[in-house]
């Protein structure tokens, strides 16, 4: 079925429709990862966004339950150069096309994704529509212009769990998804308790925490500081999530209250919220960071990690001059701030994704550091 | 960590001659390394025995030694160089470092040898890039496996053995099939798969012999698993990055060098890929490769994901060259910088210029590499592909999809076969799918094509197997096969239409899949270049045209201004042509026997020269191993197939700006030459010698007439398009005759026939011929001296660059015979004749640029020499780099300038005034060929008019003997200094063999000879041990050879009768690695060489020094 991608600035791309027949809206962003399309589909941080994948061959290895980062895809729509009608991999359970159709995600293929990426690079992210039902581009462009901008909207509340739950690490899938049954690595017996704020949390973050011997209680985004402390955690985790950190004011306050009371570790949106809570400012990047190949340097050691990124916003380092924090990580491509640590309080965060999935594992060590921070705090 | 300032001098070791498994990719890496280190201000010293390389250009190093890559010679170089490093009171001025990681296995092994023998310590030389320990850990298969197990990585079960018995024992334990891999060999030499005891004993014996340390690894087979490679880089700060992942379409069991490979990996989930990435990083750290690039190979069980490590190479490799071209990330260049202390974050990304080199390239296209094999040149060679590499070259193509890249790569191969007209034997289908062979892809396409022949022309009928079935038989991933099926389906689809009825969207679909105009024309039964024009016009009328996209390492995330381009059928073009005056240089495509690195060298030089002259230089090539496909060799690089369609698309795209534009077809060998006329017909402006002249030189009839007019003798010849014509022609010109097809390079399918049977057999069995491609029958000039001439001409004046005298007589292909500059024993009058003929022909053919001529000179006592022209090639020749190195004059650069209208008077005034050949100073320069016999056990090693060598080396000395000995040594022929010489010569040679034999006796050798030869020698009063021929009884000569009683073999072919005997002798000699000489001329040279070696002098010369002396001498 023919499909159209229309952008708010009037540029349109015609291609083939796959996945769900219909229409979808969102901010159009591109991701340069070569692997891990399924993890990208199911990353809640992509709520409200149409994702362009620069890898031209998508769907090759199908999909499988173990690689989900959430119970369903969160991308609004998908844009690819070529979409594989078959899947080939020993772990594949469902062809990608069927999978996305099942969850109502429209896909547009056979388009010049490189041209689109160059367009976004030059003009910045913008709103767009994918449709396989409306054939009049003008109508679609108009629709694109009518979509609410992500700037200023709190999407965290939207995607967050509605109720508190204990994450169950024993659940077979949650060990090492690559290895099944008996040869899957044992999770250590948990001896620490972490309360994780769910602003759109990824499965692999929970898995990494469990691997560090943490029992994890996941709580809704709006849970108050008191209620969290009442759960007597050894540490508090602030998750990744979609949208603009600024309007998520309730989180800023909670973090201010919690800072110094318990060790805190934040990732992505969590990091931005900490930045704001500490009196910093955030700003929107031209076309964001979405990919698995960003060099991030530890300002202390000079050591470089190849890291997975997925953020449209960033914390402005200058805005933290007054605050009592060290800037611990910086992106070597464009010098955006990628991590910070409080000088006196047990609190640190990174803008990128140490849990990877998809992406390199260079930064897994941060979860061990969080554990150590909690142990030291206990003493 | 910044640049190491303690280092003052760096010795870069090259990889030597082009051989199977070690090709031009190491010229690419070596050149990058030299450039990078020189740019850093280090004093760079280079040693490499291969004169056909860019890296051995005098500008690239401070001192360049074209010397044998052996311990003795390199020690001498190290000695001299460290002497030059001490100041007035003998103190070392800085650290003397050796970079062993850019010269392939050769450099690595040599470095180990130099270290183990204490030479590095003796002269205080430091290994940079890879330390001794790391090299050993990685190269010693057992140490490697232990290391892997230590870091918890899975490896196939295995045992290291140094004798057959242990091998058999272990095999029984783990069961067949079983893999044999010798330690420290390149391209898997001597490796193999044994399915039973016999095979094991056979392969193991050979492997043990080939391994320098007489060790083989016997290993559990993981045949049929998926094979992957990761290209990894590490710096001294322990930052590790993955440059590229490569997936082999051919499963485990087929050497990566013989596999169709795809980048990036297509069938791995992120979890699998990251697990592999983690493993690769652990391997780097455990092996302890401190800096630079390495590649790690993995096998993955497709049914359960079990991952095992196969090997790692602690150096840049064929794959890293491929990865560099595939991603735009210059691995060798960066590796060199890391070796001198930089860290990845301190080096900028060449392509984006804004971001650092410390990142992992991501690409938004697909890259496919396909190897090129040439079994047709080695009758009797085992064509099954296995753990030992057998391909002679490779092509790479880029497309936005796997399909597009695959189809572009396939047409880059220049198989000579018409697309879609493969010879398929349906009854063999299963076997051909199951056992990997060069034609496997043809059979896969056939297998997947729809079955019913009825509905379309039989060419496009297939076996109609399902992807699943084919996957089961080939163990290839179904995803790849499905892509191929989509292509074959589309072709079948097209067959349902015609030129006038095909719908635009179907045509667009086909083009987006990379199907060529030629293939489409073929489907519609249209032939010839006009047909292609029709398709092209149809496309344009539909607005279906390729666009050109950039290779930028980052999938367009950042801007890049490096115009490294590939074509694709997509929406946006991002490489608008400039308005500068420009020259397009067509490269030579995949390396093959007869057309290799020498032509790439010429193309690069053209680019260098014209860039200096402020032309925009535009390179077109599809060979990832080369320097020409390095994005900073030219101003614009189009990584594209060298076909009419693709080249025209580029020309049209580039000329769109209306700027002055021309194309050079003279440097890339036969490949671009064959395109010259059609290109001109399509309106392309060809620079230099006109396509008509080129055609005239290739067209026997017209060329013959020209020679008559010029009164230049050539061997009497005839042209035949039938058996009768051939026989009649042969009688007329007189036997023996040389028969061959017209329009070939490297003497393809050329044989010497001594009688009518031979001729008719040849016409019936050996060649395909037609009206437009007739068979040539020439009288064969027996025992004539052959001479190669390279000359420059600007259309008015001619400058003779070099007259090379061949060691072997005419009849041995010019590419296969050793030759020497200057000539050693040609009469001045003869040289004058040669010069005169050369001048006449160059002018008559209106040559603008380079021309190569081959002469045969008949020398009869008492008569004046007779000079015949064998052929004229109005193009750059194989010998151009060699002559350039010998004379210090960059011929290709000058030729390129002549083609843009400059004159010899302006460029080489003095040399032109002298009216003699270019000076070679006080030294002799001997070029010797290198043969791939050890890759093709059992193949006859006799030389003839068909070229078989893969590469060449050069030996330099102030006397011919030593120069020849050096060349032989570099070529792997170690001339004995004492022992026994075996003589068996044909009757023609009997008269002259005596003096030769006496020479050897005087050198202290004993003589062994077959009866006929012994007869003659004894008559002359020499003491000879007689030995039986093979048929005559035992112990026969082969027994002696196997018993290592013979150290040198002089065996001139007798013709058919004793053929098998000789074959047996030569075969035994190869396995025993005993030098075999098939002509008395060469035997004489060898005697001189041996004499020189006995004098035990080891002298080495820096090219720059020689050139300075040559100039001083004038
Ligand atoms: N255990 C094995 N089972 C099956 N095939 C193997 C095995 N080990 C190696 N091979 C095949 O042999 C080829 C050459 O082996 P490798 O160790 O890479 O030698 P080289 O040093 O020549 O690259 C590999 O590319 C692979 O296809
Ligand atoms: N008439 C001849 N007599 C003797 N040798 C010949 C003759 N013609 C060709 N040869 C030998 O065959 C070789 C290849 O022939 P050539 O015409 O040079 O083919 P190619 O185009 O492959 O170089 C020559 O190098 C020469 O040694
Ligand atoms: Mg290998
Ligand atoms: Mg020739």
Number of helices of chain A: 10
Morphology of chain A: globular
Strand content of chain A: 25-35%
Which stretches of chain B of 5+ consecutive residues score pLDDT under 50?
A: none
Kindly state the percentage of residues in helix of chain A. Answer: 10-25%
Largest sheet geometry of chain B:
7 strands, antiparallel
The number of E-state strands of chain B comes to 38
The strands making up the biggest β-sheet of chain A line up spatially as 10-12-11-13-14-19-18-17-15-16
By DSSP, the count of extended strands of chain A is: 19
Distance between the termini of chain A: 63 Å
Provide the residue-averaged pLDDT of chain B.
92
Provide a descriptive summary of the structure in words.
The complex is a heterodimer of chains A (379) and B (1114). Chain A contains 10 helices and 19 strands. By secondary structure, chain A is an alpha/beta fold. In chain A, the strands form 3 sheets. In chain A, strands 10-12-11-13-14-19-18-17-15-16 form a 10-stranded mixed beta sheet, sandwiched between helices. In chain A, strands 1-2-8-6-4-3-9 form a 7-stranded mixed β-barrel. Chain A has a two-stranded parallel sheet with strand order 5-7. With 1114 residues, chain B is an alpha/beta fold. In chain B, strands 14-13-10-11-12-15-16 form a 7-stranded antiparallel beta sheet, with helices on both faces. The chains are: A alpha/beta (379), B alpha/beta (1114). The interface between A and B is large, with 55 and 55 residues. Bound molecules: adenosine-5'-diphosphate (2 copies) and magnesium ion (2 copies).
């Amino acid at each position: 079925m023919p499909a159209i991608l229309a952008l708010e600035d009037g540029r349109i791309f015609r291609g083939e429709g796959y996945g769900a027949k219909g229409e979808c809206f969102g901010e159009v962003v591109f991701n340069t990862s070569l692997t891990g399309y399924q993890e990208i589909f199911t990353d809640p941080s992509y709520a409200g966004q149409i994702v362009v994948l620069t890898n031209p061959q998508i769907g090759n290895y199908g999909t499988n339950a173990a690689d989900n980062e959430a119970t369903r895809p969160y991308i609004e729509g998908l844009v690819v150069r070529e979409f594989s009608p078959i899947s080939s991999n020993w772990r594949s359970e469902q062809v990608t096309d069927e999978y996305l159709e099942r969850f109502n995600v429209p896909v547009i293929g056979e388009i010049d994704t490189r041209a689109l990426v160059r367009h976004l690079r030059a003009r910045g992210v913008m709103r767009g529509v994918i449709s396989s039902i409306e054939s009049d581009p003008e109508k679609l462009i108009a629709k694109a212009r009518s979509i609410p901008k992500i700037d200023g909207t709190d999407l965290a509340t939207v995607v967050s769990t509605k109720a508190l739950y204990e994450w169950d690490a024993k659940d077979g899938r949650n060990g090492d998804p690559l290895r099944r049954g008996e040869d899957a690595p044992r999770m250590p017996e948990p001896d620490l308790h972490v309360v994780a704020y769910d602003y759109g949390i990824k499965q692999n973050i929970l898995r990494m925490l469990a691997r560090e011997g943490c029992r994890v209680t996941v709580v809704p985004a709006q849970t108050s500081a008191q209620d969290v402390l009442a759960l007597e955690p050894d540490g508090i985790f602030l998750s990744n999530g979609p949208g603009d950190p600024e309007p998520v004011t309730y989180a800023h306050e909670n973090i201010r209250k919690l800072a110094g009371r318990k060790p805190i570790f934040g990732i992505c949106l969590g990091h931005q919220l900490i930045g704001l809570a500490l009196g910093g400012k955030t700003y929107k990047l031209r076309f964001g960071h979405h990919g698995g190949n960003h060099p991030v340097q530890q300002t202390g050691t000079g050591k470089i990690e190849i890291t997975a990124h997925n953020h449209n916003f960033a914390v402005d380092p200058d805005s933290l001059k007054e605050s009592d924090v060290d800037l611990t990580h910086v992106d070597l491509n464009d010098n955006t701030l990628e991590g910070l640590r409080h000088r006196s309080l047990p609190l640190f965060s990174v803008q990128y994704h140490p849990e990877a999935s998809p992406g390199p594992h260079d930064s897994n060590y941060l979860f061990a550091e969080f554990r150590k921070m909690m142990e030291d705090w206990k003493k | 960590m910044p640049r190491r300032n303690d280092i003052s001098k760096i010795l870069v070791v090259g990889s030597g001659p082009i051989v199977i498994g070690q090709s031009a990719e190491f010229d690419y890496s070596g050149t990058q390394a030299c450039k990078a280190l020189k740019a850093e201000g280090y004093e760079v010293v280079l040693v490499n025995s291969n004169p056909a390389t860019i890296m051995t250009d005098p500008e690239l190093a401070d001192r360049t030694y074209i010397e044998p890559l052996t311990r003795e010679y390199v020690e001498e170089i190290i000695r001299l160089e460290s002497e030059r490093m001490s100041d007035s009171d003998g103190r070392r001025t800085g650290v003397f470092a050796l970079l062993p990681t850019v010269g392939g296995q050769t450099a690595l092994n040599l470095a180990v040898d130099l270290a183990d023998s204490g030479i590095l310590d003796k002269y205080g030389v430091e290994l940079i890039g890879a330390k001794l320990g790391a090299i050993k850990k990685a190269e010693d298969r057992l140490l490697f496996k232990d290391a892997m197990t230590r870091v918890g990585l899975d490896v196939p079960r295995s045992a290291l053995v140094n004798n057959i018995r242990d091998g058999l024992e272990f095999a029984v334990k783990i069961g067949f099939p079983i893999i044999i891999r010798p330690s420290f060999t390149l391209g898997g030499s001597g490796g193999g798969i044994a399915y039973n005891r016999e095979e094991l004993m056979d392969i193991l014996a050979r492997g043990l012999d080939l391994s320098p340390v007489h060790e083989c690894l016997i290993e559990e087979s993981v045949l049929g698993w998926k094979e992957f490679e990761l290209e990894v880089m590490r710096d001294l700060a322990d930052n590790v990055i993955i440059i590229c992942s490569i997936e082999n379409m051919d499963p485990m069991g087929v050497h990566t060098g013989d596999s169709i490979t795809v980048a990036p990996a297509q069938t791995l989930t992120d979890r699998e890929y990251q697990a592999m990435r983690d493993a690769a990083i652990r391997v780097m750290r455990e092996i302890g490769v401190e800096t630079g690039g390495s590649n790690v190979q993995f096998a993955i069980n497709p049914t359960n994901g079990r991952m095992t490590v196969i090997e790692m190479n602690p150096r840049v490799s064929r794959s890293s060259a491929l990865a560099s071209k595939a991603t735009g990330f210059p691995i060798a260049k960066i590796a060199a910088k890391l070796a001198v202390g930089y860290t990845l974050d301190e080096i900028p990304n060449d392509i984006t210029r804004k971001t650092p080199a410390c990142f992992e390239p991501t690409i938004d296209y697909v890259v496919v590499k396909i190897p090129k094999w040439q079994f047709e040149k080695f009758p009797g060679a085992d064509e099954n592909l296995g753990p030992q590499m057998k391909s002679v070259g490779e092509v790479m193509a880029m497309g936005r999809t796997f399909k597009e890249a695959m189809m572009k790569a396939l047409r880059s191969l220049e198989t000579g076969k018409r697309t879609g007209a493969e010879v398929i034997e349906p009854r063999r289908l299963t076997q051909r799918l199951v056992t990997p062979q060069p034609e496997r892809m043809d059979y896969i396409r056939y297998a997947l094509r729809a079955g019913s022949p009825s509905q379309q022309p039989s060419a496009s009928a297939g076996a109609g197997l399902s992807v699943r079935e084919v996957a089961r038989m080939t163990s290839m991933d179904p995803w790849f096969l499905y892509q191929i099926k989509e292509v074959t389906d589309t072709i079948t689809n097209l067959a349902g239409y015609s030129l006038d009825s095909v719908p635009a969207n179907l045509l667009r679909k086909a083009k987006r899949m990379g199907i060529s105009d030629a293939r489409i024309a073929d489907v519609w039964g249209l032939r010839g270049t006009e047909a292609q024009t029709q398709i092209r016009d149809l496309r344009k009328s539909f607005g279906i045209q390729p666009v050109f996209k950039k290779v930028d390492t980052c999938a367009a995330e950042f801007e890049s201004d490096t115009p490294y381009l590939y074509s694709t059928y997509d929406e946006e073009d991002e490489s608008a042509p400039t308005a500068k005056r420009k020259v397009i240089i067509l490269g030579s495509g995949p390396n093959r026997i007869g057309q290799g690195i020498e032509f790439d060298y010429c193309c690069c030089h053209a680019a260098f020269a014209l860039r200096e002259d402020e032309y925009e230089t535009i390179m077109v090539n599809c060979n990832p191993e080369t320097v020409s496909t390095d994005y900073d060799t030219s101003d614009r690089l189009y990584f594209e197939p060298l076909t009419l369609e693709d080249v025209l698309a580029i020309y049209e795209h580039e000329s769109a700006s209306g700027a002055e534009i021309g194309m050079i077809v003279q440097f890339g060998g036969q490949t671009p030459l064959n395109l010259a006329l059609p290109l001109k017909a399509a309106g392309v402006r060809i620079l230099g010698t006109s396509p008509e002249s080129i055609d005239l030189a290739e067209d026997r009839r017209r060329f013959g007439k020209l020679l008559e007019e010029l009164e230049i003798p050539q061997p009497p010849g005839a042209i035949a398009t039938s058996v009768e014509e051939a026989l009649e022609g042969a009688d007329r010109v007189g036997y023996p005759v040389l028969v061959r097809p017209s329009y070939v390079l490297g003497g393809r399918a050329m044989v010497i026939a001594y009688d009518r049977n031979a001729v008719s057999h040849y016409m019936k069995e050996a060649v395909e011929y037609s009206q437009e491609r007739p068979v040539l029958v020439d009288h064969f000039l027996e025992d004539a001296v052959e001479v190669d001439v390279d000359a420059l001409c600007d259309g008015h004046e001619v400058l003779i660059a070099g007259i090379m005298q061949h060691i072997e007589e005419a009849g041995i292909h010019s590419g296969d015979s050793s030759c020497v500059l200057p000539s050693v024993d040609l009469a001045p009058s003869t040289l004058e004749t040669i010069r005169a003929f050369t001048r006449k022909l160059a002018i008559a053919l209106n040559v603008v640029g380079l021309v190569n001529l081959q002469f045969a000179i008949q020398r009869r006592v008492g008569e004046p020499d007779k000079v015949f022209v064998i052929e004229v090639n109005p193009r750059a020749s194989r010998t151009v780099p060699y002559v350039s190195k010998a004379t210090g004059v960059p011929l290709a650069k000058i030729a390129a300038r002549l083609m843009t209208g400059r004159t010899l008077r302006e460029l080489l005034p003095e040399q032109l005034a002298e009216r003699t050949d270019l000076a070679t100073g006080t030294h002799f320069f001997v070029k010797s060929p290198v043969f791939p016999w050890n890759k093709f056990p059992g193949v006859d090693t006799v030389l003839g008019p068909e070229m078989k060598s893969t590469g060449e080396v050069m030996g330099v000395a102030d006397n011919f003997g030593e120069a020849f000995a050096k060349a032989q040594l570099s070529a792997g022929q170690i001339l004995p200094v004492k022992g026994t010489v075996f003589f068996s010569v044909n009757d023609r040679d009997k008269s002259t063999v005596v003096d030769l034999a006496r020479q050897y006796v005087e050198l202290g050798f004993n003589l062994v000879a077959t009866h006929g030869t012994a007869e003659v020698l004894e008559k002359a009063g020499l003491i000879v041990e007689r030995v039986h021929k093979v048929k005559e009884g035992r112990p026969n000569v082969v027994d002696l050879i196997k018993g290592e009683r013979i150290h040198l073999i002089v065996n001139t072919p007798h013709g058919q009768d004793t053929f098998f005997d000789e074959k047996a002798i030569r075969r035994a000699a190869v396995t025993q690695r005993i030098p075999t000489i098939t002509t008395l001329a060469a035997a004489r040279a060898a005697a001189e060489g041996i004499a020189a070696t006995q004098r035990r002098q080891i002298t080495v010369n820096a090219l720059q020094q020689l050139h300075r002396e040559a100039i001083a001498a004038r």
